[in-house]
Amino acid sequence: MRATVAHPRAATHALRCVHCGATQVNAGPVFRCGQCSELLEVIYPERTAPPREFALRLKEIWKERKTSTLAEDVSGVWRYRELLPQVESRHVVTMSEGNTPLLPLEKAGRTLRLSRLFAKHQGMNPTGSFKDTGISVAISIAKAEGFSSVCCASTGNTSASVAAYAARAGMKSIVLLPAGQVASGKLAQALEYGAHVLELRTDFDGCLKVLHEVVKKFPACLLNSVNPYRLEGQKTVAFEMMEQLGWRVPDHVIVPGGNLANSSALGKGFLELRELGLIASLPKVSIIQAQGANPLVRTMRENDGRELVQVNAQTRATAIRIGNPASWRKAVAVLKNTGGACEDVSEEEIAAAKAELGAEGAGCEPASAASLAGLKKLVRSGFVKPGETAVLVLTGHMLKDVDYMLQAQRRYSAGPVEPDVAEVIQRLEQIDAGN
Ligand SMILES: Cc1ncc(COP(=O)(O)O)c(C=O)c1O
Ligand SMILES: [Zn+2]
Fold first, then answer.
1. In the predicted model, is pLDDT for residue 6 greater than 80?
2. 66: which of 20, 216, 237, 399 is 20 to 30 A away, CA to CA?
3. Separation CA 432–CA 435 (nearest Å)
4. Which positions ≥6 away from 355 have C-beta within 8 Å?
5. Does 258 sit in the ligand 1 pocket, CB within 6 Å?
6. Is the pLDDT of residue 302 over 50?
């Protein structure tokens, strides 16, 4: 039986502009405010904080669902459906997304003198990135609205996720990719899941701009993170993380930033938990960008978040190679509401952090490693203090970008060895000696 609770309900929702505050019923094809063209966010006007006993009961209900066999209960997104837009079961497209591990990083935590450090590994989602949590919600709503095609522009992971969920839903998927700038693992996924892939001679920002115009004339639902339902799915990582931490709020949560939807969603999740009285305080949510793709860092430094400073993005962490982030206003609000920091890290710092995470058995893709590189910088600056607790959000699986790893791991180029016991032992001794 589907467990239900009377309060708060899987709420009726509205869409509100993050800039002028106008609410609207119909999002239109590009999910922008009819008054000022800024992004929209999902709000739940009828939701109020439940009595304390009820908040506790809600936590119990979410826990109980983990032992259910119903697809919506098994999902680490739809399990929290009281805090999501209402969608009829027949429209829900789910592949047990969420349910990702919270891995202690003992070595890195010790080195940084933190009392506890964890990696919330969103790369363990069905298609290997956090995108699945958001796509599950956005595509379910597209299905409920009667769309038979969905589309996205992507640095790679969104395309893999959209293609997979569309295939599950029996929908057509169209993806626009920046030619030559997508890690091969991600491109291969999109193709294998059956997407109609178009590589454009531009960057991600250029692809998104074109797609905005396409959807005004072409009947496909836009699943980029300008679609505010994406963030509703992605915010559930905050709920799951808190459950895994026994509802003890960490001092810091650190996340890489590209188009800035994920950091915005994470912040929204924590803010909603606090509004509902499910947590008493907020973690500081800090956002880390690559130095060559740091529009938010510059926006905060140069005008305290008032006007976006666009950059011409360059970084080998291709997932965050974005110079004109759509969700910048939402991310600025998260930094201000949670007291988080915004930092940028060099290519070398990303590569070193990625190798360290790999060496601790928690490998990830380059963009994800920006979180550890950023944490190190925040420890050095004193923003993160000895004895504090921190969670890194690892956004993508290490197999997404194999070329990056093989180039970084020089040991591989030592070449093959003859199948001879003595030679193998000799090579092992050389490795032991550090050659
Ligand atoms: C692995 C990975 N990390 C981080 C990001 C950045 O997320 P956002 O664009 O929501 O800031 C992306 C986006 O594509 C990604 O694929
Ligand atoms: Zn507006």
1. no
2. 399
3. 7
4. 408, 409
5. yes
6. yes
Pocket test residue of 161, 175, 259, 372 for ligand 1, highest count of atoms within 8 A of CB: 259
pLDDT in tens, 321-358: 999 999 999 999 999 999 999 999 999 999 999 999 99
Measured CA to CA, the distance from residue 423 to residue 428 in angstroms comes to 9
Query: Helices in 145-227 by DSSP H: which ranges?
Result: 157-169, 184-192, 204-217
- Amino acid symbol at 49: A
Contact in structure between 364 and 395 (CB atoms under 8 Å): yes
CA–CA dist 139, 158 (Å, integer): 12
pLDDT of residue 9: 44
Whole-model pTM: value is 0.95
The response to whether residue 261 sits with its C-beta less than 6 Å from ligand 1 reads: yes
**What separation in Å is there between the alpha carbon of 35 and the centre of ligand 2?**
5
Instruction: Tell how strand 221-222 and strand 149-153 pair up.
Output: parallel
Q: Hey, what are 249's tokens? A: 């709020």
Please indicate whether residue 295, judged by its CB atom, sits closer than 6 Å to ligand 1: no
| Phi, psi dihedrals of residue 69, rounded to the nearest 5° | -105, -5
CA atoms within 13 A on the CB side of 112: 30
Non-local (6+) Cβ contacts of 344 within 8 A are 288, 289, 290, 291, 294, 297
Question: Phi/psi class of residue 97: alpha, beta or left (left: φ > 0; alpha: ψ in -120 to 50)?
Answer: beta
Q: What are phi and psi of 376, to 5 degrees?
A: -60, -40
Per the document, the length of the chain is 435
Q: Is 127 in the pocket of ligand 1 (CB under 6 A)?
A: no
Q: State the Cα–Cα distance between residues 199 and 58, nearest whole angstrom.
A: 45
My answer on whether omega of the bond before 126 falls inside 30° of 0, hence cis, is no
Ligand 1: which residue has its CA nearest to atom 9?
Answer: 259
User: Hey, what are 173's tokens?
Assistant: 């998927």
125 lines ligand 1 (CB under 6 A): no
Q: Pick the range with the lowest mean pLDDT from 34-48, 69-83, 161-175.
A: 34-48
How far apart are the C-alpha atoms of 283 and 263, rounded to whole Å?
A: 13
Question: CA 214, CA 222: separation in Å to the nearest integer?
Answer: 10
- Predicted pLDDT at 3: 41
